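Renewal narrative, Specific Aim 1. Our central claim is that a sequence can be written position by position from structural information alone. The example that follows is taken directly from our test logs and has not been curated for this report. It begins with the structure tokens describing the chain, in the order in which they were read.
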């Protein structure tokens, strides 16, 4: 009997793990377990990010939340240029709204961002908070980041005067909001969200109660965000390494990151910065910077894969 149980042990473990995954997926999609096969087919099977627009639109009109999400994103500049149908914030908002209503977690986070930034719709902080919270409840990385952005925006909007009778309390309230923003950014960073990584770097750079200033950690998070093609972080790194500000002065590092920035953005001001930097460097330093830039670009996701990742609901 015991031998039989030992033989069955791997199958029992697999069944147990499988049950947990099924229940988790059921909770994530908010559908009964019995309906999961049909839901899986409707959301995923036969549906590719590069599907023909008419195919996507047909599925979207039939209520397929993932098709609605892809169709919306393909009406924004975030989609790969080859997949863009046309950039139209109104169409994008309409279909993102419908996908979010269909419980698509990534669409919920994107919809929250649209309400926060006023993209395709007037700014609405309450709606942004509602949808970001629902996305975060589904462990959606972007949901954490938007919650962080909301808390940060609320803190920055507070006008606090020393003459206020509740001055200390309002200061404490603002500090609590900033701390909440950093907590959410940490959650997003743990899930690999590049904007959260950069925002967390800013948290460590400024320092907070319970999160002392730590320039080394700030630089580490900026670097992690930059390695995911975050151009703001790349620009920060280039400046820091050139000026020796809050980081060791390292001209080859600065040169490498500026080369990467030019590769990603192709802006004339970055080319001018590179020329000015080159006048401060030896030939050996320039060559070291060039070699490092090649490695950095090679290790980054490609432009196409980065853009396609935005169509991934788990991102």
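The sequence written for that structure reads:
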């Amino acid at each position: 009997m015991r031998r039989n149980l030992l033989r069955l042990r791997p199958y029992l473990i697999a069944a147990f793990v499988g049950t947990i995954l099924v229940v988790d997926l059921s909770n994530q999609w908010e559908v009964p377990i019995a309906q999961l096969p049909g839901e899986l087919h409707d959301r995923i099977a036969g549906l590719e990010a590069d599907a023909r627009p008419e195919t996507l639109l047909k599925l979207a009109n039939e209520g397929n939340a993932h098709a609605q999400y892809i169709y919306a994103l393909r009406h924004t500049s975030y989609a790969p240029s080859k997949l863009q149908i046309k950039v139209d914030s109104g169409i994008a908002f309409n279909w993102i709204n419908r996908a979010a209503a269909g419980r698509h977690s990534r669409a919920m986070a994107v919809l929250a961002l649209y309400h926060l930034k006023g993209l395709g719709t007037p700014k609405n902080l309450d709606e942004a908070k509602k949808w970001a919270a629902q996305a975060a409840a589904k462990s959606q990385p972007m949901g954490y980041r938007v919650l962080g952005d909301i808390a940060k925006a609320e803190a920055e909007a507070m006008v606090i005067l020393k003459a206020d009778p509740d001055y200390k309390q309002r200061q404490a309230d603002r500090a609590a909001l900033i701390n909440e923003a950093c907590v959410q950014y940490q959650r997003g960073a743990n899930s690999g969200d590049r904007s959260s990584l950069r925002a967390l770097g800013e948290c460590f750079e400024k320092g907070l109660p319970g999160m002392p200033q730590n320039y080394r950690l700030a630089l580490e998070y900026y670097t992690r965000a930059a390695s995911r093609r975050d151009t703001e972080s790349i620009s920060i790194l280039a400046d820091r390494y050139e000026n020796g500000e809050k980081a060791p002065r390292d001209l080859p590092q600065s040169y490498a990151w500026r080369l990467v920035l030019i590769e990603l953005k192709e802006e004339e001001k970055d080319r001018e910065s590179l020329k000015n930097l080159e006048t401060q460097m030896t030939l050996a330093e320039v060559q070291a910077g060039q070699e490092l830039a090649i490695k950095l670009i090679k290790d980054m996701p490609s432009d196409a894969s980065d853009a396609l990742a935005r169509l991934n609901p788990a991102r």
